[in-house]
Amino acid sequence: MSKVIFQHPQSLKHNTYHYCPGCGHSIAHRVICEVIDELGIRGVTIGVPPAGCAVLAYNYFDVDMIEAPHGRGPAMASGIKRALPDSIVFSYQGDGDLAAIGMAESFHAANRGENITVIFINNAVYGMTGGQMAPTTMLQQRTTTSPAGRKQALDGYPVKVCEIFSQIGGVTYLERCSVSSPAGVNKTKRAVRKAFQCQMDGLGFSMIEILSMCPTNWKMSSVDSCKWIDEVMSKEFPTGVYKDNIPDLKKNAEKIS
Amino acid sequence: MNKVLMSGNNIIGEAAIRAGCRFYAGYPITPQNELTEYMAEHIRKAEGGVFIQSESEIAAINMIAGASATGTRVMTSSSSPGIDLKQEGISSMAACELPGVIVNIMRGGPGLGNIRPSQGDYFQATRGGGHGDYRTIVMAPATGQELADLTMDAFDLADKYRTPVMILADGMMGQMMEPVIFKKPPPRNYPEKFMLRGAGDGRSKFIRGLLLDPIDSEEHNWKLYRKYEAVKKSEVHCDEYLTQDADMVVVAYGTAARIAKGAIKRLREKGTKIGLFRPITLWPFPERELRTLALKIKNYLVFEMSTGQMLDDVRLALQGYADIEFHGRPGGAVPTPSQLANVIAKIYDKID
Ligand SMILES: Cc1ncc(C[n+]2csc(CCOP(=O)(O)OP(=O)(O)O)c2C)c(N)n1
Ligand code: SF4
Ligand SMILES: [Mg+2]
């Protein structure tokens, strides 16, 4: 008997990615599709891609999708989920999308405890528009709009989304991962799976932040980009679980039943 | 069906729920709070009814866009400054061909302005408001009964053309108590193929507004244009009052039309031959109907609670075929019918 250990995920379309070589988005897409397959939720999943490099995500995800205006994914996802409570809804967002223009929508979807999943791709730049400074750009990091490096006095600090969101009452599960190494990819997959499972169990808002390479705008090779995440970026944005209310919520549910 | 007495804001809410609206999101702003509050209390009583007090008008319009994509009947409401914030979403819904009803209970502007009734948002409503080559169907009710009827119709129109429809009223209409009879809405007719409800075992679908290829994008714009042309052909509504024998006709909509009607009644008692032309749809504007009227009547007075916005559409419709005067009260000022009657009388006396 042969056993399948690696195959093209069923919910990933057979299209060539438009992403740059070494880009973290393509890895994140694949991870999500593998999870969707494993959980058997392709037919009930509705995804909300952002304005950002992932704006064409519907070319890759073989699930129903509706593109949101820049930053508005969590509001749209809230509308979809409330109207169709049996569906599995995720919004997929960049750092500019989530932590700058869409901070209010993200914060309040989280605070309402919307039973949705947010996949948050932190690549420390605005990828799609050509590498401008993002809310998550590191201090001293050069971008096209911080040409001398991000200065705290002028540009403020990198926004630590998981740290901030861990304080929000409505959040159930929150983890920061990275796709810069095979071990990181495996961890990311486990986290994404946990987040979707959390939603399937009706336990509320989950978000997975993924530190993700943007070799093009970092002006680094693919390998150096992975190294930069491991050696620099993850020092500012430590990976790990930031909030996990799943066991408590499950215990409470058991008590009630 | 019994006649009931309700405020305009509540009439809109009740009509929406009766028309099958099952998703409402909104953010408080005067003078439309009673509508948001009505939905909070009543929509959840309907099966599957969802109410969300959103964090902003931007969030509200995107929430209804998401719910609309699932095939749910949706509505949001606000007043002028909040409608500014919805424009991104309205443009996006037009692009993505998502039906939905947006209520603007206008107040004085620009800026925060004041909370008095006004009609300063005509351009914003009828010219698109948001960016890009799109139109919004705009209905301008003038009575409590019309608030009910047009709100119900708005949902059907939104479905039929898969586009956002705006109810444009003002603080006066929103807060006035009036008797109303709710008609029985027709059954909904919205094909499943336009809904995102999960792919099941079938092909997945997507809804998008971004079309990177200019040829695709051009074709999409022409497709929308053809749809708007069809709307222009079939969905124009207007009302005439005492125009048969009139020497001069006042053109006004919504609250301004009601004030004008009061003024005209007073003037008619004195034997002055004045009539009223009242657009009920502001986009599409009743251009042909007004031009037809101009075949026999050559003098018009446009009255708006603004410095003159619908005036442009009247000029475009009449294109030099008639004389057009204007009287406006912007910024939340509302004349009484007798004040307006004096203005009309002066202008009437000048015509030969
Ligand atoms: C209202 C609005 N403002 C600006 C833009 C332009 N824009 C598109 S994507 C983007 C930023 C993308 O950065 P991020 O969210 O970090 O995603 P990434 O491309 O890095 O994955 C911007 C500013 C837009 N589409 N809409
Ligand atoms: S610009 Fe950056 S984020 Fe965008 S596709 Fe290229 S590598 Fe990926
Ligand atoms: Mg980014």
Question: What does this entry look like structurally?
Answer:
The complex is a heterodimer of chains A (257) and B (352). Chain A has 257 residues and is α/β, with parallel strands linked by helices. Chain A has a single domain (25-256), classed as 3-Layer(aba) Sandwich (Rossmann fold), CATH 3.40.50. Chain A contains ten helices and nine strands. Chain A has helices at residues 24-39, 73-83, 95-101, 103-111, 152-155, 161-165, 182-200, 215-218, 222-236, 246-256; strands at 45-48, 64-66, 88-94, 117-122, 125-126, 132-133, 171-178, 205-211, 240-244. Chain A has a seven-stranded mixed beta sheet with strand order 2-1-3-4-8-7-9, with helices on both faces. In chain A, strands 5-6 form a two-stranded antiparallel ribbon. In chain A, helix 1 (24-39) packs across helix 7 (182-200). With 352 residues, chain B is of the alpha/beta class. The longest helix of chain B has 21 residues, at 214-234. The radius of gyration of chain B is 20 Å and the shape is globular. In chain B, strand 14, helix 11 (310-318) and strand 15 (323-328) form a beta-alpha-beta unit. Chain B has helices at 8-18, 33-42, 57-69, 80-96, 122-126, 144-161, 171-175, 214-234, 254-269, 287-293, 310-318, 337-350, and strands spanning 4-7, 23-26, 50-53, 74-78, 100-106, 137-139, 164-170, 177-180, 206-207, 238-241, 248-251, 274-279, 281-283, 299-304, 323-328. The mean pLDDT of chain B is 97. Chain B has two domains: 4-234, 3-Layer(aba) Sandwich (Rossmann fold), CATH 3.40.50.970; 239-350, Rossmann fold. The A-B interface holds A 42-46, 48, 51, 55-56, 58, 61-69, 72, 75-80, 82-84, 87-88, 104-105, 107-108, 112 and B 22-23, 25, 48, 50, 52, 54-56, 58-60, 62-70, 72, 74, 88-89, 92, 96, 196-201, 204-210. Strand 2 (64-66) of chain A pairs parallel with strand 9 (206-207) of chain B, so a sheet runs across the interface.
